[in-house]
Amino acid sequence: MPNIFVTADKMERTGRFIDTRFDLKNTDLGRTLYDEGHIEGAVFWDLNEDLSDLTKDEGRHPLPDKKQLQSLFEKSGLQYDDAIYIYDQGAAAFATRAWWILNYAGFKHAYVVNGGFEAMKDVGFSVTTEVPVFQKSTLDLQWNDDILVKRQDILHIIEGKRKATLIDARAADRYSGEFEPFDKVAGHIPTAKNYDWEQLRDGTKLVITSSILQKVPKDEEVVVYCGSGVTATPVYAILKEAGYDNLKIYMAGYSDWVNHHPIATGENQ
Q1: 110 close to 87: Cβ distance less than 8 angstroms
Q2: Count of domains for the chain
Q3: In a domain, 269, yes or no
């Protein structure tokens, strides 16, 4: 099996399936699509309701706490030895967000379906409107705390107390400070390099590109962030697939940082 990404034609038909389709501009769309038809056996995880805790004040899509995540996994009936296949609409950031969270919780057999829902349909996976019911599981989770950093860790990187490369996964005009649709100040975290996650998109797939391999050093710690911890995850996942080992995410992201510390503007480093 691949490390992270799998194409629909290489998947085990006996695995567990998670539908993470979503639209940041139409937050009800994912649930609507699921209700209209999903892969048989798939449970639905909503970005806002399941993969974020919007009651927290840590950016726009705060990571749920461990107790909340464990409840989600157990409610979904997941086991550590399950082969778990996560799909979204293809070449999006929602399946990789769920994959990262499962990786954070210690699941070793979670995969992103490259090509998404339509690719699974095309190779003959059954589609249904029936919502599956799984027996609740009981998990003894082994959390992978090393892959998550907090605001204070970022400050240490900027101050030179911790050696790491910061990668900003947002669009170049948001990084440079020319445009900001969500946060109160445009710009980026000081010292960060920019790599727009959308450069990884090839049709409905996410692919390793030569440009990201050239941009991101492989011989030191790399911390990826975006606006709110969603679009950083495709960059993280692709780097992991490319063999990068020392990877972290600042999940709270720029939307957290901008409320507490100064920012930088200017061209891509």
Answers
A1: no
A2: 2
A3: no
- Model confidence at 267, in pLDDT bands (50, 70, 90)? confident
Please tell me the pTM assigned to this model.
0.97
What residue numbers bound the domain in which 110 lies?
Answer: 5-143
Cβ pair 233, 253 in contact under 8 A = no
Alpha-carbon distance values, 91 to 15, 95, 134, 169 (Å): 21, 9, 28, 15
Return the closest-CA partner of residue 72 out of 40, 104, 33, 45.
Answer: 45
Contact predicate 120/108, CB 8 Å: no
Please identify every residue annotated as catalytic.
226
Distance CA 101, CA 232 (A): 12
Edge-to-edge order in the sheet of strand 5-7: 5-7, 110-114, 84-87, 16-19, 42-44
Q: Is the pLDDT of residue 268 over 90?
A: no
132 and 48 inside one domain: yes
The CA distances from residue 262 to 72, 183, 265, in Å, are 36, 13, 10
